[in-house]
Amino acid sequence: MRKRIMFTLLALLFWWNGAEAQSFDDYFIDKTLRVDYLFNGDASKQVISLDELVSLPGWAGRRHALDRLPLEGNGDITMVDKASGKVIYRTSFSSLFQEWLGEKEAQQLTRGFENTFLLPYPKYPAIVTVRLKDVRHQPCAVLKHEVNPEDILIHQRGTSQITPHRYLLQNGASDACIDIAILAEGYTSDEMELFYKDAQDACEAIFSHEPFKRLKHKFNVVAVESVSQDSGVSIPRKNEWKNTAVSSHFDTFYSDRYLTTRSVKAMHNWLAGIPYEHIIILANTDTYGGGGIYNAYLLTTAHHAMFKPVVVHEFGHSFGGLADEYAYDEAPSPLYPYEVEPWEPNITTLVDFGSKWKDLVPEDIPVPTPVETDPAKIYTKVGVYEGAGYTKKGIYRPTTECRMKINEAPCFCPVCERALERLIRFYTE
Q1: Would you call 207 helix, strand, or coil by DSSP?
Q2: Residue 420 lies in a domain
Q3: pLDDT digit string, tens, across residues 201-257
Q4: Could you give the number of structural domains in the chain?
Q5: What is the DSSP letter of 249?
Q6: Domain span at 248
């Protein structure tokens, strides 16, 4: 029996070492495969189309845990080695297209949205599968396509005419740090020093918050001079349309403060040849607004009084996959059905609360938890507070107040902070 146990242990050890030995270099080279897609459709039917493949020098993403998802997201991408059938890379995302599907317009109109994702460049032919999921987390559109790394029509970018840029924070090589790029939007060539100041302010705002403050050494931040012809950004409700670097505008989905761009390829073209994983876009305007989409980008206005808390909040969305914790409707949001547990780590319908922050809630705390009124505890007392995900009833948040709920909050709540730290360590350790 002892021999059998020893043999089993040795076999497991051999298997484990073998699994660990399958490193980044087994399947990838130090380049990036940029994959451009079009997400098309309406509320009843969605389709994914391949637009273009692009080769970029260097790979700035993770080189470990390659077959694991950082978060579930509203969609995912899986790369499989064609010869062996082995999953060699996975990542997740959300998209503006999927948000739009919940709008009334999607009931009567078909639209297409650009979406771009970064994958490590395969050594050998690979099969890439892209999935979009509906609000019940079920696949609603799937595209599977082959990537031949020797394909002559893979567009080569980033080897010349690289956009001028300046590092604001540089702590190490891309394989050891998370690379954030800050793009200028609505800044003319004469306004670039203003942009660099605004980018520095954004950087300082993010790294004044935990867990980014104590894990600052795990990040690089670069500011990129994406020059606009016009100063400012488009505000359709005022009939103001500007010629800007990434064609952003307010009034997305007819919401005054929702600032986004659908020119996603242009955004990534500006960044070609610069190491990046996550994108912050600063808009040269004092009009209030912004938006953040998980593993896509965030956009916010640089000259409004709430610029600093807003950029941190939106980074919580785009980097951390955190949900909005505020609520304004009695009826459930079309994005969060009551019978489904949201994938975002900081809100819950209680369908699967055990996967969220149940371990942080003392046993004597009632559910729902009464709103905390002590100013010393409103950001730190963890419970199950009703009202989140845009809905006043049936969806719950971790604390009374948080950076993901109000601009006045000085910090992320303990649950958001833990979720962000887990993600940082997932990417870097």
Answers
A1: coil
A2: no
A3: 999 999 999 999 999 999 999 999 999 999 999 999 999 999 999 999 999 999 999
A4: 3
A5: B
A6: 165-318
| Phi and psi torsions of 12, nearest 5° | -65, -40
Which amino acid, one-letter code, is at 388?
A
Q: What secondary structure letter does DSSP report for 143?
A: E
pTM: 0.93
Per-residue pLDDT of 172-192, as tens digits, reads 999 899 999 999 999 999 999
List pLDDT tens digits, range 392-426: 999 999 999 999 999 999 999 999 999 999 999 99
In terms of domains, do 193 and 138 share one? no
The CATH number given to whatever domain includes residue 54 is 2.60.40.3250
Using DSSP's 3-state secondary structure scheme, residue 4 falls into: helix
Please check whether residues 174 and 303 belong to one and the same domain.
yes
Please say whether the beta carbons of 171 and 191 come within 8 A. Answer: no
Q: Which residue has the tokens 């242009």?
A: 266
pLDDT in tens, 54-105: 999 999 999 999 999 999 999 999 999 999 999 999 999 999 999 999 999 9
Residue 3: the pLDDT is 40
Per DSSP (E only), the strands in 286-350 are 290-293, 297-301, 327-329
Query: Rounded CA gap, 333 and 327, in Å?
Result: 10
Residue 230 Cα to chain centre, angstroms: 28
Using an 8 Å Cβ cutoff, are 279 and 318 in contact? yes
Same domain (yes/no): 246, 215: yes
Q: What is the separation, in whole angstroms, between the first and last Cα of the chain?
A: 38
Task: Provide the 8-state DSSP code for 152.
Answer: T
> 214-227 b/e with 16+ CB inside 10 Å = b?
ebeebbbbbbbbbb
Residue 333: what are its φ and ψ, rounded to 5°?
Answer: -70, 145
| Residues 180 and 135 reside in one and the same domain | no
Name the phi and psi angles at 92, rounded to 5. -135, 170
Length of the chain: 429
